[in-house]
Design goal:
Blueprint lengths: L2 H12 L35 E5 L42 H8 L14 H8 L5 E2 L19 H19 L1 H10 L1 E5 L2 H10 L6 H24 L4 E5 L8 H5 L8 H24 L4 E5 L1 H10 L8 E5 L25 E3 L7 H13 L5 E2 L3 H6 L16
Parallel strand pairs: 1-2, 1-3, 3-4, 4-5, 6-7
Antiparallel strand pairs: 5-8
Helix pairs in contact: 1-6, 2-11, 3-4, 4-5, 4-7, 6-9, 7-9
């Protein structure tokens, strides 16, 4: 596995760990995840739109359009369970986290990758009919994370600025701001930043270095949210950093296949800082509302009791090769696991479709311990108009 591929996996791994993979309805008794498969689909598209920012756990194909030779999820077996069995740039066997958030909102799947837009589809986005995804596999909060290779958070925000400018030109500033104020801005990023820092640390980490890392990450995160707020964003759905030390690629680097506790501790520390940041920003920026999905906590609960989540395997990749399926990439000649619905990980660092579905079920309308201060459903209802029936489907078609 190449250096870039490892970095992408570590980052995305973090966002993947708490995925319950079962063939039963979306129900995790130990984790108390609400069933997403037992709700009615909406009959009309909701007023709110979805704008997605993040890394490979959210990317729906932006990286396919970047120049250069680096890993892309544009080959089998990626997308084997996606409609039509085609690879789309999603680091999954099918749908990813952004897709299931979109389904909860009443859409068919995630809005399109920004770089995939044609003149015609750009006009559709400019009318406010659809949102867009700016997420890029390998991206970080810091521009220096995989510098010059992918689309960092700052650039993703800049690209959204182009979208907003088109909306203002077509709809007018007032109408564009009104639409954006009811929309959900989904952000899932930070995994790569923490993973890169952890990988570069070959000995005991100095507290001063960790503090400097957190300060840089929070500064950039603050700038991104503040800039989005200035362009009309009011509702933020945040996914924190998960147990990046427990992905197959991380485990495969330890002698006994156990989790890398140091990397997990770094993730937990950053999540504390992120939670404080959101609380501070909501009091300073009038009208801001947010929901933090605690991926790290959800992952801990699931890994501690996988059977209760309907899982059979929480440490190996379904598609890959070598130890824990993590020592070679998921390729067309890889051997797939027997039941993808019972695996937490699709490849060395990304969740299966089923896992992504279960994660979103927990964050959208699941137990209170995994979302702060409200879940995504309540966030979308805050001062929003025309969201339609509360009984919407996050389930597979």
């Amino acid at each position: 596995m190449g250096r870039h591929h490892q970095a992408i996996n570590m980052a995305a791994l973090v966002t993947l760990l708490v995925m319950a993979i079962s063939s039963m309805p979306i129900e995790l008794s130990a984790v108390a995840v609400a069933a997403a498969g037992n709700v009615r689909p909406m009959t009309k598209v909701p007023a709110a739109r979805l704008y997605v920012f993040g890394d490979s756990t959210e990317d729906v194909g932006n990286n396919n359009y970047l120049p250069g030779d680096f890993p892309r999820a544009d080959r089998p077996y990626y997308g084997v369970d996606f409609p039509g069995g085609r690879s789309t740039g999603r680091w999954s066997n099918g749908y990813n986290i952004a897709d299931f958030v979109a389904r909860c909102m009443g859409f068919k799947r995630s809005p399109p990758a920004y770089l995939s837009l044609t003149p015609r589809s750009s006009r559709v986005v400019a009318k406010g009919i659809r949102g867009a995804s700016y997420a890029s596999a390998g991206a970080g909060i810091l521009d220096s994370t995989h510098a010059g290779q992918y689309i960092p958070l700052s650039e993703q925000v800049r690209l959204f600025g182009e979208t907003r400018a088109q909306m203002v030109a077509r709809l007018g500033a007032c109408a564009a701001n009104e639409l954006l104020s009811t929309s959900l801005f989904l952000i899932s990023i930070g995994n790569n930043d923490i993973a890169v820092f952890a990988a570069a640390t070959t000995q005991q980490v100095r507290s001063d270095d960790v503090a400097a890392l957190y300060a840089s990450l929070i500064s950039n995160y603050t700038a991104a949210i503040t800039e989005l707020y200035g362009m009309g964003a009011r509702k933020f759905g945040i996914v924190n950093v998960g147990l990046i030390g427990c992905t197959p690629s991380s485990r495969a680097r330890t002698p006994t296949g156990t989790c890398a506790d140091g990397a997990n501790a770094l993730a937990a520390g950053f999540n504390d800082e992120l939670r404080s940041l959101l609380g501070s920003l909501s009091s300073r920026l009038h009208g801001v509302a947010y929901s933090i999905g605690d991926l790290l906590g959800l992952m801990q609960a699931t890994i501690a009791n996988p059977r209760a989540a309907g899982l059979r395997n929480v440490d190996s990749a379904c598609c890959g090769g070598g130890r824990l399926g993590a020592q070679s990439a998921c390729q067309p000649n890889s051997t797939l696991c027997a039941d993808r619905r019972r695996y937490l990980f699709w490849d060395a660092g990304h969740p299966t479709q089923r896992a992504a579905q279960l994660i979103v079920s927990a964050f959208y309308d699941g137990p209170a311990q995994f979302t702060v201060p409200v879940n995504l459903k309540k966030l979308l209802r805050l001062r929003s108009v025309g969201l339609g029936s509360p009984h919407v489907s996050c389930a597979l078609p």
